[in-house]
Design brief:
The longest helix has 15 residues. The protein is globular. The chain has one domain: Rossmann fold (3-Layer(aba) Sandwich), CATH 3.40.50. It has 10 helices and 8 strands.
Length: about 260
Amino acid sequence: MPYFHSNGADLYYESTGSGPPLMFLHPPAMGAAAFYTQREELSDQFQVITFDARGHGKSGDGGRNDLLIAEWAEDMAALADHLGVSQIIPCGYSSGANPALEFAISYPERTAGLILISGYPEVSTNILDKQIKIGIWGMKKDLRGMLAKWLAVSHTGNKKHQRFIEKTAKASNPVLLKNLYANSLYYQCTEQLPKIKCPVAAIYGANDYYIHYYQYLFYKYVRNIQLIHIQGIAHQIPTKKPKELHGIIRSFVAQHHLSSIT
């Protein structure tokens, strides 16, 4: 199995296909398994890069029970170095948008474009706040089995994909997950959004009402941004509306002439 080393931990990754490098970032507990369909269907045109964040699935935790968002972005840079990739297009899903945003802010010269899927730059709405606090509570009780099942069933009806997601969540470090949920709760990069100069696509499910507020923050602070809604879906776009998502990604790369990045 392929691993790379970053900040004291050996982290599991997968890289398939060739072309502009898309690096997908997952929410807590889901790991690279979240992007099974993206690896299968986008590798004809792109280098699709996924990895289990430290303490998740097959990745080590480096002897620590914490993962800061800034450290996650550092791990992204280490993986890009490991693969010999000078620029990437981070694709952050849900709270996986946090490390994607942090990377774009901290490594602007290495960010060719940025794709945010059901993402947000801060937690400032009651429903999202409560959902993350439920995650913190669940990991305090080490309810990984329950979380694994819920993540799998809520994201896909494909039994094979469900098994991948469940296996990753169950193998993850519960204390690190608790702390990552907390770090996601308090992460805030809104004031730094004007530093992002690359083209950005912010993609939301038309029915994802409790997340829609955050699109206005992106629109207010990011200069070169497209806001895109996918009909008939709430939050789980990568697994439930992959065809529409992949069409948007292909169009975004073509529109901004990103096909030659490596």
